[in-house]
Specification:
By secondary structure, the protein is α/β, with parallel strands linked by helices. The protein is built from 12 helices and 15 strands. The strands form 3 sheets. A 7-stranded mixed sheet has the order 7-6-8-9-10-14-15, with helices on both faces. A 5-stranded parallel sheet has the order 2-1-3-4-5, with helices on both faces.
Length: about 425
């Protein structure tokens, strides 16, 4: 009887250990972004794209290494740096070793500092920060660190491509710059002023204004300033509800020129602009949806729509993030040794289904890729956004934009 009891105890312990091991096999990715409040639609659409990418690109194909599956854990940060740090700690306590975030560079700055500090103090539970949309240049310059990787072009890279296009339009003599009052909005303004001055051959900035982020209910006063300035074009880095608010107000107040944007597509924005935005809204982005870059991308988009009929793949970089992470984990032979994974991400070249080659620049962990400038239209679409009949069609492309751009990053790597 003693032997039977002993055997039973061992078996029970083995089951517990086996169950724990199986649970630990999941590669946990913490998604820390807004899932409530004025930017909830942006965050929720991003979450759906991460969940789908993890399943479609990894889990449904058998997982990684010994069958490990990617699990995306959602955390609502309400676009608050303070709340984001609380959610970061919860995520780490739940076993997440990868953090993805993109909405608000203010949040990204808080996260990258906290993760750097955590990793120095806790070498057994280190975390990688995979930044898919926060584009403050400082994150891959003075505030760079080994644990942070950016999968989107920073705002300077985007502005470099945008201003190349703007200065080619000889009808543009006056530009109005408007954005959200935080680090990203200020970076957009600074880059626009500097680059237009350097390239513009007399282009005049007739307005340069910042407004509170997520708090303006009526953008009419701002729009009237734009129209009265005599501007031929507008540049804005606004995103979410602020993008829709400023864009609609400018158009509704009679502005006829191009509005150059960073984030004026998807998450309900395309549908809300509809016909009013046709041939006016222009967007700088990575990845080509119209025309679709590859048949793999077409199949992926169609599969996404089967699961999320009301959704959009408006951030193809999310799929690049999952794909590059999966490749790095496979090459490292481990999902838990984040130093090894980070070392594989550094310098990685990756063929994106959305078109072109991606290069993770090792000196600052800034992705380098083709950048496209597209126009809001209902013509020549492979895929629309928001089931609206309208989408963004590529008009021009800058290949491997800012490949040789300078960086002030002085990265310290773990020993």
């Amino acid at each position: 009887m003693k032997n039977i009891a002993k055997y039973g105890a061992v078996s029970a312990l083995s089951l517990v250990i086996g169950a724990s091991a199986a649970f630990a096999e999941n590669i946990k990715i913490a998604f820390i972004d807004p899932l409530s409040g004025p930017f909830a639609s942006t965050g929720t659409n991003g979450l759906h794209q991460f969940e789908f990418a993890a399943d479609y690109m990894v889990n449904d194909k058998g997982g990684l290494l010994d069958g490990q599956k990617m699990e995306v854990l959602p955390f609502d940060n309400k676009v608050s740096p303070k709340e984001s740090l609380i959610q970061l700690q919860v995520a780490i306590d739940q076993g997440a070793r990868y953090v993805v975030q993109g909405n608000s560079s203010g949040v990204a700055n808080a996260l990258t500092e906290a993760i750097d500090k955590h990793n120095r103090r806790n070498p057994d539970s280190r975390v990688l920060f995979l930044n898919y949309a926060a584009v403050d240049p400082a994150l891959t310059n003075d505030k760079c660190n080994f644990w942070h990787f950016r999968f989107d072009a920073n705002s300077d890279i985007k502005m470099d491509a945008l201003t190349d296009v703007i200065v080619q339009d000889k009808d543009i003599k006056k530009v109005y710059i408007i954005g959200q009052d935080y680090s990203f909005g200020k970076a957009v303004s600074a880059a626009a002023n500097e680059m237009l001055d350097a390239k513009g051959d007399g282009i005049e900035v007739v307005g340069d204004e910042l407004h509170p982020i997520g708090k303006v209910k009526d953008f009419t006063p701002y729009a009237r300033k734009v129209v009265s300035s005599g501007a031929d074009a507008v540049i804005t880095g606004n995103w979410g509800a602020d993008m829709l608010g400023i864009g609609k107000a400018i158009i509704d107040n009679g502005f006829e020129g191009p509005i150059y944007t960073y984030y004026a597509a998807g998450s309900g924005i395309t549908a809300a602009f509809g016909e009013s935005g046709k041939d006016k809204i222009r967007l700088i982005s990575q990845g080509s949806i119209n025309p679709i870059a590859t048949e793999e991308a077409r199949d992926t988009y169609n599969a996404f729509l089967e699961k999320y009929p009301d959704g959009n793949i408006d951030q193809s970089r999310i799929f690049n993030t999952i794909g590059m992470l999966a490749q790095a984990i496979t090459e490292a032979g481990s999902a838990t040794d984040v130093v090894a994974v980070a070392s594989k991400l550094e310098g990685m070249e990756y063929d994106s289904m959305w078109g072109g080659k991606l290069f993770m620049r090792p000196q600052d962990h800034q992705i380098i890729q083709d950048m496209h400038v597209g126009v809001h239209t209902n013509d020549n679409l492979d895929f629309d956004y928001d089931q609206s009949g309208y989408g963004v069609v590529t008009e021009s492309t800058v290949e491997m934009a800012s490949m040789d751009s300078p960086t002030t990053c002085e990265m310290k790597r773990p020993e």
